[in-house]
Design a protein that fits this description.
This protein is an alpha/beta fold. The protein has one domain (6-249): Alpha-Beta Barrel (TIM Barrel), CATH 3.20.20.70. The protein is built from twelve helices and eight strands. Strands 1-2-3-4-5-6-7-8 form an eight-stranded parallel barrel, surrounded by six helices. Helix 2 (48-54) links the parallel strand 2 and strand 3. It is globular and about 45 Å long. The mean pLDDT is 97. It binds phosphoenolpyruvate. Phosphoenolpyruvate binds at residues 10, 168, 173-174, 211-214, 232-236. The site of phosphoenolpyruvate (PEP) has 13 residues, from strand 8.
């Protein structure tokens, strides 16, 4: 059975509650006809209530950009999966490269967040990807392998099958520089092969998104690759028209 395409938008630290509500309203109308693609948006956590309310019954899911591994406690400024889940959120990004680079999220922490997402009833979107230095040093597979085995450590096969993976080469995020479809496919195929250590259905089921400067103009070619099952979109997700065009490209 073919994997259903999954396009997610990461709004990063953009769109407070008022602007987020406006963008959600635009998305609701731009994506009204979509039935073929799973879609989610990840607003800043403070905007989640407004977006979740606006997108109720639209089929567009809400994702959190991050979560704390613990349920509750003395963790000033943090939000747990259980709290996020109360807002009707379906997914949680875990290990986005900005979290890894700017906020110290190691593979051990990312793994704790993936497990916390499951504990709270959220589906994790585990982000992996190499820096330009690592690519130039021929370390792409070693880096991805370490992030996969670290991030998925201790999960049951059924849980791994429910994870979405997002391959996001760090050098392509927010830079306007996209991996070529062939470059992206090569890593996606490597990831799919790596999943072969689990029972067969896992590699067949797991959706692997590509992320890194995906735009309406390059989405179709990327999404046509056999192991690219969707996209994690940053900049182009902040505009309803361009995000809807990327969703449409997933069905082409
Ligand atoms: C991202 O933030 O995950 C991302 C891929 O950003 P952009 O599309 O802006 O490169």
């Amino acid at each position: 059975m073919a994997r259903r395409p999954f396009i997610a938008g990461n709004w990063k630290m953009n769109k407070g509650p008022n602007e987020a509500d406006e963008l959600a309203r635009e998305l609701k109308s731009a994506l009204a006809g979509n039935t073929a693609v799973d879609v989610a948006v990840a607003p800043p956590s403070i905007s989640i209530p407004a977006v979740a309310a606006r997108l109720q019954h639209t089929g567009i899911q809400v994702a959190a950009q991050d979560l704390h591994p613990q349920v509750s406690g003395a963790f000033t400024g943090q939000i747990s999966g259980e709290m996020i889940r109360q807002l009707g959120v379906a997914y949680a990004l875990c290990g986005h490269s900005e979290r890894r680079a700017l906020f110290g999220d190691t593979d051990v922490i990312v793994n704790a967040k993936v497990k916390a997402a499951f504990r709270a009833g959220l589906l994790p979107v585990l982000c992996v990807g190499e820096t330009l230095e690592q690519r130039d040093g021929g370390q792409v597979e070693a880096v991805i392998e370490a992030q996969l085995s670290g991030g998925l450590e201790g999960l049951e096969a059924d849980q791994v099958a429910a994870v979405t993976l997002a391959y996001e080469p760090v050098w392509a995020i927010g830079t306007g520089r996209t991996a070529s479809p062939a470059q992206a496919q090569e890593v996606h195929a490597f990831i799919r092969g790596w999943l072969g250590r689990y029972p067969d259905y896992v590699a067949r089921t797991v959706r692997i998104q590509y992320g890194g400067s995906v735009k309406p103009g390059n989405a179709a070619e990327l999404l046509a690759q056999p192991d690219i099952d969707g996209a994690l979109v940053g900049g182009a997700a902040l505009n309803a028209e361009s995000f809807a065009a990327i969703v449409a490209a997933a069905t082409a």
